[in-house]
UniProtKB/TrEMBL annotation, chains A, B:
<keyword id="KW-0863">Zinc-finger</keyword>
<dbReference type="GO" id="GO:0006281">
    <property type="term" value="P:DNA repair"/>
</dbReference>
<comment type="function">
    <text>May play a role in DNA repair. It seems to be involved in an RecBC-independent recombinational process of DNA repair. It may act with RecF and RecO.</text>
</comment>
<dbReference type="GO" id="GO:0008270">
    <property type="term" value="F:zinc ion binding"/>
</dbReference>
<feature type="domain" description="Toprim">
    <location>
        <begin position="81"/>
        <end position="176"/>
    </location>
</feature>
<dbReference type="GO" id="GO:0006310">
    <property type="term" value="P:DNA recombination"/>
</dbReference>
<dbReference type="InterPro" id="IPR015967">
    <property type="entry name" value="Rcmb_RecR_Znf"/>
</dbReference>
<keyword id="KW-0234">DNA repair</keyword>
<keyword id="KW-0233">DNA recombination</keyword>
<dbReference type="GO" id="GO:0003677">
    <property type="term" value="F:DNA binding"/>
</dbReference>
<keyword id="KW-0227">DNA damage</keyword>
<dbReference type="Pfam" id="PF21175">
    <property type="entry name" value="RecR_C"/>
</dbReference>
<keyword id="KW-0479">Metal-binding</keyword>
<comment type="similarity">
    <text>Belongs to the RecR family.</text>
</comment>
<keyword id="KW-0862">Zinc</keyword>
<protein>
    <recommendedName>
        <fullName>Recombination protein RecR</fullName>
    </recommendedName>
</protein>
<dbReference type="Pfam" id="PF21176">
    <property type="entry name" value="RecR_HhH"/>
</dbReference>
């Protein structure tokens, strides 16, 4: 099986490098597409191609955009003086699904990590400081993961923005909505207790 | 977020309809691609497009091909007088990975199913009968699943090919290589016992 299988194998290889997919699931996906050329494969090619031609990082916040400035940064209603700092675009999307935050974002592009040798210069922290000044930001909300790297990054940002006089806050830690205490780790329960509020 | 998010959401929707992917994993995949436009997204578009333009079902056996006749059907070394009947192309690929079968295939395109209203006319059974005659086939090997539908289909094919005088066989049932008895269902153990061989 010369040519056909080579091309199909190459395609399976590309799919299997995507997050959450292994060789077996990639094979199943490719086979599904091959057997539905007009209903699934061609529309997928067109949708991917459209996005590949237009998608680019927002030069201001790092969100994915179809123009140099993303829809959120371009929306004057979102100039609330608040910037929410997130690790990556996935977290920005998660915040947007929450439909609570009405300000703008700043995507760091990762967290500080000694293990992965990610230092401050690898993240978009200088740009955050510039934005605090140029956009007249009053409050920076840290929406970073409750991990060692996330918290190290939070502390580094706290030090970096100190001289700007901006208000710095962070997402509350506590019991997730719908979460059962029984299934929570002790750290979460402790954090939820410390942040308890009048009822 | 007008245009950009609409296109990206449409793309996530297409990915989430692929087997094994839900909205969450589709979102992660799309985000991964968007953040790696040149290293991952563009090469994937090109590979998919190439396959979309060339892939077609083999008019003889139903395998996926880049020509009207697939590489296996076109290979004279595989004219062994044996046809292996499989449910779909995934099973053909699985047989080929086994590297034991040297004949040709016939892809049924499914199994008979009362529940899903799949009758004999929906499968490529008439074409199998034609091939038995025109290709001078001596043996038909049924490689169908050990499911109710798979076995119903096997029995239907057995009746259909009876008058051609072809030898009909089926894959052995038994303990999978590396399989522990403890984890096998009773049906498999029973089948393995009935098919026991001298040691
Ligand atoms: Zn932006
Ligand atoms: Zn063929």
């Amino acid at each position: 099986m010369a040519d056909a299988r080579d091309e199909i194998d190459a395609l399976i290889g590309q799919f299997s490098r995507l997050p959450g997919l292994g060789p077996r699931s990639a094979r199943r996906m490719v086979l599904h597409l091959l057997q539905r050329r007009d209903q699934a494969l061609r529309p997928l090619v067109m949708a991917l191609d459209r996005v590949a031609q237009t998608a680019q990082p927002c030069t201001r916040c790092g969100n994915i955009a179809t123009a140099p400035i993303c829809d959120i940064c371009a929306d004057p209603k979102r100039a609330t003086g608040e910037i929410c700092v997130v690790e990556d675009v996935a977290d920005l999307w998660a915040m947007e699904r929450g439909q609570v935050f009405t300000g703008r974002y700043h995507v760091l592009g990762g967290t500080l990590s000694a293990l992965d040798a990610v230092g401050p210069d690898d993240l978009h922290i200088p740009q955050l400081l510039e934005r605090i000044v140029s956009e007249g930001i009053r409050e920076v909300i840290l929406a970073l993961g409750a991990t060692v790297d996330g918290q190290t990054t939070a502390h580094y940002i706290a030090e970096s923005v100190e001289q700007t006089g901006v208000i710095l806050s962070a997402l509350a830690q506590g019991v997730p909505v719908g979460g059962e205490l029984d299934f929570l780790d002790d750290g979460t329960i402790g954090a939820a207790l410390r942040s308890r509020r009048a009822f």
